[in-house]
Write a structure and sequence with these properties.
The protein has helices at about 1-15, 70-75; strands at about 30-40, 45-50, 55-60, 60-65, 85-95, 95-110, 115-120, 135, 145-165, 170-185, 185-190, 205-215, 220-240, 245-265. It has an 8-stranded antiparallel barrel. By secondary structure, it is mainly beta. The model is unreliable at about 10-20 (pLDDT under 50). Helix content is about 10%, strand content about 60%. The radius of gyration is 21 Å and the shape is elongated.
Length: about 270
């Protein structure tokens, strides 16, 4: 994350210093894009608390959840929010400088049946899941833990653009940006076989940096690829139907986003 943020700042400062005869995008333009992402997460420590338990799982492994690539999942209008998606709308307040707001809809799935170290006390009746050396196997009757509807990072970004190539209707632009926002996950968690909490919940915050490139045609339609890294901290995750059951975790994430969109002026 630190390396990506530093690279983004270097690109911005270097690009500002370079003479540029053609703006990538001009002041007053709006834009919107839609696309899909793949995500990767670092191992995380997850702390669970309730009326009769208080324990921590260490170095928990998780992955994203890619929907099968077909028309039904990705292009059918009533299902376009099912995959891991990205949506943003933005405005150029100055040539080559924009602000946007939108959502990165990622999915986070804890690897089931992995063995991790555990500290603290589990609910009475589940002590036999913990080994004498302090490990626990995350079976379905002990814990299922997913943010699959999803790990919703609602964020705003500042972006700087630089045009590197122009010929006729074609422009190729570079982009660097930084952003921040909040997490509104719908967590699918089954803890100690309790009924899960099935609603959106404000869980925490995130920070991110990114670099990207886009191909702009007719100053109207663009294709874009982004590399994004960031940090997520969620101190308030709902895990069951009981409001006394909570979890907290933080981790780093990396995304590769494939996007298409339009830019226009009123």
């Amino acid at each position: 994350m630190k390396k990506l943020l530093l690279l983004a700042l270097v690109i911005v400062s270097t690009s500002v210093a370079i003479a540029q005869t053609e703006p990538a995008y001009k002041k007053g333009k709006f834009y919107a894009f839609w696309g899909w992402n793949r995500a990767h997460y670092t191992n995380s420590t997850i702390h669970f608390t309730g009326d009769d338990y208080d324990f921590t799982l260490h170095r928990v492994v998780a992955h994203d959840k890619l929907s099968a690539v077909n028309y039904h999942n990705y292009l059918q209008p009533n299902r376009i929010t099912i995959p891991q998606t990205n949506f943003k709308i933005g405005y150029f307040f100055k040539d080559n400088m924009a602000v946007n707001i939108g959502v990165d809809h990622m999915k986070y799935v804890m690897d089931q049946n992995q063995t991790v170290s555990i500290s603290g006390t589990v609910r009475p009746g589940f002590e036999d899941h913990v080994t004498p050396n302090g490990d626990v196997r995350l079976t379905e009757d002990f814990l299922m833990f997913e943010h699959t509807d999803g790990l919703n990072y609602i964020n705003s970004e500042f972006e700087y653009y630089h045009n590197f190539y122009k010929r006729g209707i074609l422009k190729i632009n570079g982009i660097a940006g930084v952003g921040a926002g909040f997490l509104l996950p719908k967590t699918n968690s089954t803890l100690f076989s309790e009924e899960r909490h099935d609603d959106f919940h404000l869980a925490g915050f995130g920070l991110n940096g990114k670099i990207a490139a886009d191909v702009l045609l007719w100053d109207l339609f663009f294709l874009r690829c982004e590399g994004k890294q960031g940090y997520i901290n969620m101190p308030s995750i709902r895990t069951t139907a009981s409001s006394s059951d909570k979890a907290s975790q933080h981790f780093w994430f990396a995304q590769v986003n494939f996007l298409f969109g339009f830019a226009w002026s009123f």
